[in-house]
């Protein structure tokens, strides 16, 4: 009887979705991962790109479309591609993080990612999810409303993706390899970029500066993406107000600001009006740096907003664009005011009752030099090695099978399901933490969740080594951010302040420095989903974990079978 019911339900859903998606399209693309000469800051590097393009191709789809992307690896590194923010309902095999949902695509091999965009609209992006390859392997993924449907705001005349990136005057893979050997922090970048170009404030760069057109009286939708590897960034446009209308492919109640901040991984859609004297204005991005005593790239990247109607002598390089002012590097007050402005457009359905109540600390650590290591390998502070953890577990990826494959096939010994639901030791997380708590344990520990479970996760920053604003990203889900605050989260006094009416929905939350954020979601997508800090330097140190969501009842609540070309290790 149950089986029959499931069958009828399956037939019904298939028919209904066939009707509903009458005009949904299947888009096929080919991505060839290859080394390409790219010249920036006066020097040419053999840069890993997609199809020789840097940044990579922009994909534009409508909600409901299916993407089929054949990725062929012609580079000398292992690679995978992740579709950042795509929910991948039942298609976790196409998510991409290496050793979590697939083994890497080896040089010479290929893998085809297939997935359907379901109920998402706005700006996402794609990037490599293997070592530091995403420094140069990334691009925009823009999701328009279904054909015949409209934005919840007046349709802008123009739309421009603004990809903020981070450039090393070196091979980024060598930079991270050196840091892994020495245990020290990796070298900081040499430039930030807008659509791949550093802009006028860097050497040998004014030739290629990105130009963004606008006309008097028209609106331009800027789809801003922080694709930088390790740095949260402020972004602003001289003399123009920014009206924020969406983030991470979810709409927001519009609000107006002079400056936005994006952690790596985050996207923000802003409208700007051509309401200023027609000339040239800089848009600029530079670091928001919340960590203490840590070196960072303090340079500024620019692009030029150019009015089409600008009188001729105003055009061209002779007229210097107007430079905006940016917040101080450590201006946490501006970040707090900005993130407090985020609301969903209307009342939303936030889980009110919670089945899995989780509390995860997030932060750095220092490992004492292991016995078989020499001084060269322990060049972190006072002869240590940098590390990072969640709930005192420093995450280690498997190396011979992915977590999803091991789960699906029942391979034992790849991971354990004992990730702590609470910090194993409670302490004053944002206070002066005893040195004895700075050294996490290593492990491939996951959290099992039942299909349909209503989940709350408190993400609590620690001040170990340094407090820092960590952009925490969860794959396979969008979640509501119901509260944020500073200091230690206190359920007795903070729970009453939760916004369960119109909290914003995102896939990456910038957890306040020396503070906390609370997220809620329903575990309705079976699979192995990595949750990690989107500062790549911290992923390598272990600031990650995996949520393993079981299948529910019947086909429609179960992950699809793995594709035949899924790479093997
Ligand atoms: Cu945008 Cu796991 O990443």
Automatic annotation (TrEMBL):
Residues 1-24 form the signal peptide. Binds 4 Cu cations per monomer. It is an enzyme of class 1 (oxidoreductase). Residues 33-147, 159-309, 418-551 form the Plastocyanin-like domain. Gene3D superfamilies: Cupredoxins - blue copper proteins. Its cofactor is Cu cation. One of its GO terms (biological process) is lignin catabolic process. Keywords: Apoplast, Copper, Glycoprotein, Lignin degradation, Metal-binding, Oxidoreductase, Repeat, Secreted, Signal. SUPFAM superfamilies: Cupredoxins. It comes from the Eukaryota. Its EC number is 1.10.3.2. GO terms for cellular component: apoplast. One of its GO terms (molecular function) is copper ion binding. It catalyses: 4 hydroquinone + O2 = 4 benzosemiquinone + 2 H2O. It is found in: Secreted, Extracellular space, Apoplast. PROSITE patterns: MULTICOPPER_OXIDASE1, MULTICOPPER_OXIDASE2. Lignin degradation and detoxification of lignin-derived products. Belongs to the multicopper oxidase family. This is Laccase. The gene is LOC100796956.
């Amino acid at each position: 009887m149950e089986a029959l019911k499931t069958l009828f339900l399956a037939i019904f859903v298939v028919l209904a979705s066939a009707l509903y998606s009458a005009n949904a399209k299947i888009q096929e693309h080919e991505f060839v991962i290859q080394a390409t000469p790219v010249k920036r800051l006066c020097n040419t590097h053999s840069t890993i790109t997609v199809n020789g393009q840097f940044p990579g191709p922009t994909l534009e789809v409508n909600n409901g479309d299916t993407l089929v992307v054949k990725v062929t690896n012609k580079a000398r590194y292992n690679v995978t591609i992740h579709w950042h923010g795509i929910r991948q309902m039942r298609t976790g095999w196409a998510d991409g993080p290496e050793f979590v949902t697939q083994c890497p695509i080896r040089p010479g091999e290929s893998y085809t990612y297939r997935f359907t965009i379901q109920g998402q609209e706005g700006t996402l992006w794609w990037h490599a999810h293997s070592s530091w390859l995403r420094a140069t392997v990334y691009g925009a993924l823009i999701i328009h409303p279904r054909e015949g449907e409209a934005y919840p705001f007046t349709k802008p005349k123009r739309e421009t993706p603004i990809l903020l990136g981070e450039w090393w005057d070196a091979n980024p893979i060598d930079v991270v390899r050196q840091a892994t050997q020495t245990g020290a922090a990796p070298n900081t970048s040499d430039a930030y970029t807008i659509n791949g170009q550093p802009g006028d404030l860097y050497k040998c760069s004014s030739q290629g500066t990105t130009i963004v057109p606008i006309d008097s009286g028209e609106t331009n939708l800027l789809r801003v993406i922080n694709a930088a590897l390790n740095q949260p960034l402020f972004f602003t446009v001289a003399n123009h107000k920014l009206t924020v209308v969406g983030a991470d492919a979810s709409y927001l109640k519009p609000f107006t600001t002079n400056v936005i901040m994006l952690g790596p991984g985050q996207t923000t859609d802003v409208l700007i009006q051509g309401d200023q004297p027609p000339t040239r204005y800089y848009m600029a991005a530079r670091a928001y740096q919340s960590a203490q005593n840590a070196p960072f790239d303090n340079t500024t990247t620019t692009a030029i907003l150019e009015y089409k109607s600008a009188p001729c002598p105003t055009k061209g390089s002779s007229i210097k664009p107007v430079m905006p002012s940016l917040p101080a590097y450590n201006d946490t007050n501006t970040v707090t005011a900005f993130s407090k402005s985020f609301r969903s457009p209307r009342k939303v359905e936030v889980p009110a009752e919670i089945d899995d109540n989780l509390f995860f600390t997030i932060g750095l650590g220092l490992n004492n030099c292991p016995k078989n290591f020499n001084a060269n390998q322990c060049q972190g502070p006072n002869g240590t090695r940098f590390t990072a953890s969640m709930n005192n577990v420093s995450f280690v990826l498997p190396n011979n099978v992915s977590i999803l494959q091991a789960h699906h096939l029942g391979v034992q010994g790849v991971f354990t399901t004992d990730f702590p639901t609470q910090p194993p030791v409670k302490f004053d997380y944002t206070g002066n933490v005893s040195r004895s708590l700075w050294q996490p344990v290593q492990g491939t520990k996951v959290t099992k969740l039942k299909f349909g479970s209503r989940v709350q996760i408190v993400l609590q920053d620690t001040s170990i080594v340094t407090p820092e604003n960590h952009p925490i990203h969860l794959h396979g889900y969008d979640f509501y951010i119901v509260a944020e605050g500073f200091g230690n989260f206190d359920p007795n006094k903070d729970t009453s302040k939760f916004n369960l009416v119109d909290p914003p929905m995102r896939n990456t939350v910038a957890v306040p420095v020396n503070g906390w954020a609370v997220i809620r979601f329903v575990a309705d997508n079976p699979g192995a989903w990595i949750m990690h800090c989107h500062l790549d330097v911290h992923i390598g140190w272990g600031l990650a974990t995996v949520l393993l969501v079981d299948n529910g009842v019947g086909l429609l609540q179960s992950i699809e079978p793995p594709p035949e070309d899924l790479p093997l290790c």
